[in-house]
Design brief:
single chain; 117 residues; two-stranded antiparallel sheet; binds zinc ion
Length: 117
Protein backbone atom coordinates (compact mmCIF):
# COMPACT_ATOMS: atom_id res chain seq x y z
CA UNK A 1 0.00 0.00 0.00
CA UNK A 2 1.24 3.50 -0.79
CA UNK A 3 2.27 5.89 1.96
CA UNK A 4 -0.44 8.37 0.98
CA UNK A 5 -3.15 5.75 1.50
CA UNK A 6 -1.67 4.86 4.89
CA UNK A 7 -1.96 8.47 6.02
CA UNK A 8 -5.56 8.66 4.85
CA UNK A 9 -6.38 5.49 6.81
CA UNK A 10 -4.49 6.42 9.96
CA UNK A 11 -6.08 9.87 10.08
CA UNK A 12 -9.44 9.13 8.48
CA UNK A 13 -10.65 6.11 10.45
CA UNK A 14 -10.03 7.57 13.94
CA UNK A 15 -11.67 10.84 12.80
CA UNK A 16 -14.75 9.03 11.49
CA UNK A 17 -14.86 7.03 14.74
CA UNK A 18 -14.65 10.17 16.86
CA UNK A 19 -17.57 11.74 15.02
CA UNK A 20 -19.53 8.49 15.21
CA UNK A 21 -18.87 8.19 18.96
CA UNK A 22 -19.95 11.81 19.57
CA UNK A 23 -23.06 11.18 17.48
CA UNK A 24 -23.76 7.95 19.39
CA UNK A 25 -23.43 9.69 22.77
CA UNK A 26 -25.66 12.58 21.68
CA UNK A 27 -28.37 10.27 20.40
CA UNK A 28 -27.98 7.74 23.23
CA UNK A 29 -27.32 5.09 20.57
CA UNK A 30 -25.73 2.39 22.70
CA UNK A 31 -25.35 -0.02 19.82
CA UNK A 32 -23.45 2.45 17.62
CA UNK A 33 -21.28 3.41 20.59
CA UNK A 34 -20.50 -0.24 21.30
CA UNK A 35 -19.80 -0.85 17.59
CA UNK A 36 -17.40 2.10 17.30
CA UNK A 37 -15.52 1.34 20.53
CA UNK A 38 -15.14 -2.35 19.68
CA UNK A 39 -13.92 -1.36 16.19
CA UNK A 40 -11.26 0.88 17.76
CA UNK A 41 -10.24 -1.87 20.19
CA UNK A 42 -9.85 -4.49 17.45
CA UNK A 43 -8.05 -1.84 15.35
CA UNK A 44 -5.55 -1.29 18.15
CA UNK A 45 -5.24 -5.04 18.64
CA UNK A 46 -4.45 -5.37 14.92
CA UNK A 47 -1.79 -2.63 15.25
CA UNK A 48 -0.20 -4.65 18.06
CA UNK A 49 -0.23 -7.85 15.97
CA UNK A 50 0.92 -5.92 12.87
CA UNK A 51 3.86 -4.51 14.81
CA UNK A 52 4.93 -8.01 15.83
CA UNK A 53 4.56 -9.21 12.21
CA UNK A 54 6.41 -6.11 10.89
CA UNK A 55 3.45 -5.11 8.75
CA UNK A 56 2.21 -1.70 7.69
CA UNK A 57 0.54 -0.39 10.86
CA UNK A 58 -2.09 1.76 9.14
CA UNK A 59 -3.06 -1.18 6.97
CA UNK A 60 -3.20 -3.46 10.04
CA UNK A 61 -5.36 -0.95 11.88
CA UNK A 62 -7.76 -0.72 8.93
CA UNK A 63 -8.10 -4.52 8.79
CA UNK A 64 -8.83 -4.78 12.52
CA UNK A 65 -11.12 -1.78 12.43
CA UNK A 66 -13.17 -2.81 9.43
CA UNK A 67 -13.26 -6.58 9.88
CA UNK A 68 -13.06 -6.78 13.67
CA UNK A 69 -11.46 -9.96 15.04
CA UNK A 70 -11.42 -11.50 11.54
CA UNK A 71 -9.19 -8.59 10.51
CA UNK A 72 -6.87 -9.20 13.47
CA UNK A 73 -6.60 -12.86 12.44
CA UNK A 74 -5.87 -11.77 8.83
CA UNK A 75 -3.08 -9.46 10.04
CA UNK A 76 -1.66 -12.40 12.01
CA UNK A 77 -1.78 -15.01 9.23
CA UNK A 78 -1.19 -13.05 6.00
CA UNK A 79 2.46 -13.14 4.90
CA UNK A 80 4.33 -9.92 5.55
CA UNK A 81 5.11 -7.95 2.41
CA UNK A 82 8.83 -8.01 1.62
CA UNK A 83 10.51 -4.76 2.63
CA UNK A 84 12.90 -4.00 -0.24
CA UNK A 85 14.19 -0.72 1.21
CA UNK A 86 17.23 -2.50 2.69
CA UNK A 87 17.70 -4.97 -0.17
CA UNK A 88 19.71 -5.04 -3.35
CA UNK A 89 20.13 -7.43 -6.23
CA UNK A 90 23.14 -9.69 -6.17
CA UNK A 91 25.30 -8.61 -9.16
CA UNK A 92 26.02 -12.27 -9.99
CA UNK A 93 22.75 -14.19 -9.59
CA UNK A 94 20.34 -11.21 -9.38
CA UNK A 95 18.62 -12.53 -6.26
CA UNK A 96 17.32 -9.99 -3.75
CA UNK A 97 19.72 -9.90 -0.81
CA UNK A 98 20.44 -7.68 2.22
CA UNK A 99 22.13 -4.42 1.25
CA UNK A 100 24.90 -4.99 3.83
CA UNK A 101 25.62 -8.58 2.80
CA UNK A 102 29.24 -9.30 1.99
CA UNK A 103 28.48 -12.77 0.68
CA UNK A 104 25.44 -13.75 -1.38
CA UNK A 105 23.37 -16.40 0.44
CA UNK A 106 22.10 -17.75 -2.90
CA UNK A 107 25.18 -18.11 -5.12
CA UNK A 108 27.84 -17.76 -2.37
CA UNK A 109 29.61 -15.04 -4.35
CA UNK A 110 31.74 -12.65 -2.33
CA UNK A 111 30.38 -9.17 -2.80
CA UNK A 112 32.56 -6.13 -3.07
CA UNK A 113 30.90 -3.03 -1.58
CA UNK A 114 32.38 -0.83 -4.26
CA UNK A 115 30.65 -2.59 -7.10
CA UNK A 116 27.07 -1.48 -7.34
CA UNK A 117 24.62 -4.36 -7.17
ZN1 LIG B 1 24.11 -14.17 -5.72
Amino acid sequence: MEKKNSYIISLGLPMVSTFAIIYAINTNDDFLLYLMISALITGLLAIFVGNVKKRNLAESFALGYLFSLIGVVLVAILPSPIDISNKKNCPFCKELINIEATKCPFCQSVLNDKEQG
